[in-house]
Amino acid sequence: MGILVSLLAVIVLILIVYLGVGVANLQFVFGVIVPYVAMVTFFAGIIYRVMKWASAPVPFRIPTTGGQQKSLPWITAARFDNPYTTAGVIGRIALEVLLFRSLFRNTRVELREGPKLAYYWEKWLWLAALMFHWSFLIILLRHLRLFTDPVPYFVSLLEGIDGFLRVGLQGLFITDILIVAAATYLFIRRVIIPQVRYISLPADYFPLFLILGIVLSGVLMRYFFRVDVTAVKELAMGLVTFSPKVPEEGIGVLFYTHLFLVSVLGAYFPFSKLVHMGGIFLTPTRNLPNNSRAFRHINPWNYPVKVHSYEEYEEEFREKMKKVGLPVEKE
Amino acid sequence: MASVPKPDELAKIDHKPPKTGWMDTPVKFRRGTWLYAAKPKYLEAIGFPNPREWSPEDEDWKLPPNWKEIILEGLRERLGRFRSLQLFMDTCVRCGACADKCHFFIGSGDPKNMPVLRAELLRSVYRRDFTAAGKIMGKLVGARDLTVDVLKEWFYYFYQCTQCRRCSLFCPFGIDTAEITLLTRELLNLVGCNVDWVMGPVANCYRTGNHLGLEPHAYRDMVEFCVDEIENVTGIRVEPTFNRKGAEILFITPSGDVFADPGIYTMMGYLILFHEIGLDYTLSTYASEGGNFGSFTSHEMMKRLNAKMYAEAKRLGVKWILGGECGHMWRVIHQYMDTMNGPADFLEEPVSPITGTKFENAKSTKMVHICEFTADLIKHGKLKLDPRRNDHLKVTFHDSCNPSRAMGLLEEPRYIIKNVCNHFYEMPENTIREQTFCCGSGGGLNADENMEMRLRGGFPRANAVKYVHEKYGVNMLACICAIDRAVLPPLMEYWVPGVRVTGVHELVGNALVMEGEQERTTDLRGNPLLGMDDDKNA
Fold first, then answer.
1. Are residues B139 and B276 in the same domain?
2. Are B458 and B441 in contact (CB under 8 A)?
């Protein structure tokens, strides 16, 4: 059900472009207004979301420790999996963000005859996730070519590395292949693993289809139905310099489909699970050092509570305590 | 109480989810898988709302008329107080990496025991009432209304989580189900949906200082019983003191150690050790509980119970506090105590009076784990140990959830065990250290009426013990947690007969050679030492 709804939603989005650009000729709407609205929504949404998170306090230092603590000097502590210092925390976060450290721990349990539980090597999710996110980032950075003039050196360099495979005259970007493969894997996995299918919401399929739609429209443009890159750049530069201008020709419905899906993704981003990107930096189980016995953590809303004092306790038990020779405050 | 199926029956676990979607599958309260409701007297004793007689099996839970408002207001308040809660509600991508990391899912196959779905039980309500997308799109984004059935589902599944944090280790965003569980239990507590096995100990601890409700004279008697037993085995009479002002160190351990077999042998181990090194310490009858069932209830109750530790240390004028072997106790001490009830500026930075070691890692909280303390003693050669006195034991070590995943106390107990035992074998690596499996009964779930669920939850742990039992002949499961010591024996009896359970300091007590002791013929339990039977015959 969720799959169908999400797929339908993406198809409807594509139809909107075909009607809007192909039939109604609303190039300015889809080339300028929609992207601007999306951009504003994206940035405002993200800022709102992060501010909202950041404004909530972190009352307790609750890191999940993934290795030996720092205690006695002769015991080697796990510097990153159980960080004691800020440097250790930075290392831990870097490992999480760049290499998905926690996901790398993943295993798969199988119940066999016996009964016997076996734990299997299972890094495919980690690998696909890593491929997906890194490819996404690199593709995003490559797109800076369209928004900058002159094009910064690192963009050209990135392109060179990414496109070292040559098929005929044309460079073939590795990331294009990887992101299609990884997103397809993530989708198939969601469908065929019964437990994952059971927990999946339309909100899980929709961004996958949306991103696949973006990637495929991009791939079609680059490798199969060439669009006029100069015209695209003209539009892109117009957008970033706030002097939007829609080129007369050279870019067709396919390009507008790509742009529209990207716009939808951007606008959808802050209100969906895609905000996990920001969350990883803020989660108190990962971004705090495990040193709460050495350095006191302050809870800004720590309030006094009702306790049962020693005086009340002795008041109740004084006679019994005296009888067995336990010392008391008041004879 | 429901009868528990045979192990081979129980091990037939179907991990395939049911045909109906999870929102359309209402919870069934099957006997043996849930806990009795809290008696009103316990709630009254601590001033908790809605005390009444009720049972989860009843149709009518006798909720306050405005229960829904109370819960939603409570949720709003907590979203404002805990960044963790907001993040954990917003950032899950449902990748499913946590699913088969939970011992309750592995042991029950119930999809709502997958950590992701356990959290979705709360998230669905959060989305409905606190996010624009949920308000507009409802089910499409996984939002649903808060109903009585949802509340019942919360009660069932958030008391099927032991707050062990294994899932949190594997989660790419560090989402911590223990945090979600505790906060949802807080919400349940607001409308009086709590369990007897947790609220009883909480109320007891509040009044008498310990979960078992031992009054001061009874607590002292229990410890004296350990003293007698030590004398029987070693010929030496140790002399612990109680509520003594001016002692250097206050020692606090879970009350399970003074009360229940096999915890008492661990207690005997502590007492032997302290006697032998001549430690200037005292026990307290007021702060006679290391554990904190408040941490299974709410942050506020955790703080109310924990406050006694510092209060008593201050009253007695000790320099610092030493803490016994316990799991969730150390989560509270390590990650909460100083923040909640500190600063402990009336105490001194802990220094071992025997070795002079400064415990830098505890310089603010001023509380040291007994394993850190003992490992340091052994490292400095301050203990005369005869590990042969544990030669009748083949030992493996169960890392307790909280010391491993909320602290990282992994090497200290191992170092001790290796110095006091000659036969030590590790369980498979996916089941120990930070990846350790819960005993299945933590988080306040260790009541008898919940036995089937406990045995299911403990299955992965037991299965790993079975592996070393069959491979190396392991017959003793060591641990550093009082709940473990209470619940692992029935778990072993059910899944791995022939394996018994011990605290690490019981092994220390066996091996520690005391000055002037009589020749030991038995261990602390009165079991003959290896070779002793033969010697006598010769």
1. no
2. yes
Q: What is the mean pLDDT of residues B318-338?
A: 98
Q: Which CATH number fits domain A2-141+172-304: 3.40.50.720, 1.20.950.20, 3.40.1000.10, 1.20.1440.230?
A: 1.20.950.20
Q: Where are the beta strands (DSSP E) in chain A?
A: 107-112, 116-121, 165-167, 170-172
pLDDT over 90 (residue B532):
no
Query: Which of B23, B76, B83, B328 is the best residue to mutate to test the A interface, defined by the most A CB atoms within 10 Å of its own CB?
Result: B83
CATH number (domain holding residue B170):
1.10.1060
Nearest CA to B209 among B248, B246, B242, B178? B242
CA distance B465 to B475: 9
Q: Are residues B223 and B154 in the same domain?
A: no
Quote the CA–CA distance of B54 and B40 in Å, as a whole number.
9
Contact A103 B97 (CB under 8 A): yes
Identify the DSSP state of A221. Answer: I
B401 CB neighbours in chain A (<8 A) are none
φ, ψ of residue B327 in degrees (nearest 5): -85, -75
Same domain? For B141 and B176 the reply is yes
CA-to-CA distance for B1 and A327, rounded, in angstroms?
44
- What is the radius of gyration, based on Cα positions, of chain A? 28
Please name the member of A62, A114, A296 whose beta carbon is closest to the beta carbon of B338.
Answer: A296
Report yes or no: B116 and A196 within 8 Å, Cβ to Cβ: no
Looking at the structure of chain B, the number of domains it has is 2
For residue B37, is it within any domain? no
Q: Say if residue B223 is in the same domain as residue B132.
A: no
Instruction: Kindly list the domain boundaries of chain A, sorted by start residue.
Output: 2-141+172-304
pLDDT value at position A168? 63
Query: In chain B, which residues have their Cβ closer than 8 Å to the Cβ of A96?
Result: 172, 174
Give the pLDDT confidence of B245-302 residue by residue, as tens digits. Answer: 999 999 999 999 998 899 999 999 999 999 999 999 999 999 999 999 999 999 999 9
Same domain flag for B174 and B210: no
For the segment B177-197, the average pLDDT, to the nearest whole number, is 98
Q: Residue B75 sits in which domain range?
A: 15-30+49-193
**Do B163 and B259 have their domain in common?**
no
* Mean pLDDT in residue range B50-67: 97
pLDDT digit string (tens) for B83-107? 999 999 999 999 999 999 999 999 9
Query: CA torsion angle for A154, A281, A208, A178 (degrees, to 10)?
Result: 40
**Chain A partners within 8 Å of B406 (Cβ):** 62-65
Q: Which residue of A has its CA nearest to B431?
A: A119
Which tens digit of pLDDT belongs to each residue from B396-422?
999 999 999 999 999 999 999 999 999
pLDDT reading at B537 higher than 80: no
Instruction: Please tell me the least confidently modeled range out of A55-69, A116-130, A162-176, B237-251.
Output: A162-176
Same domain? B176 vs B300: no
Residues of A in contact with B11 (CB under 8 A): 111, 114-115
Question: Does B10 reside within a domain?
Answer: no
Contacts of A82 in chain B (CB under 8 A): 408
Q: Does the residue B2 lie in any domain?
A: no
B22/A279 CB distance under 8 A: no
pLDDT band for position B204 (cuts 50, 70, 90): very high
Which of the residues B48, B217, B373 would you substitute to probe the A interface, choosing the one with the greatest number of A C-beta atoms within 10 Å? B217
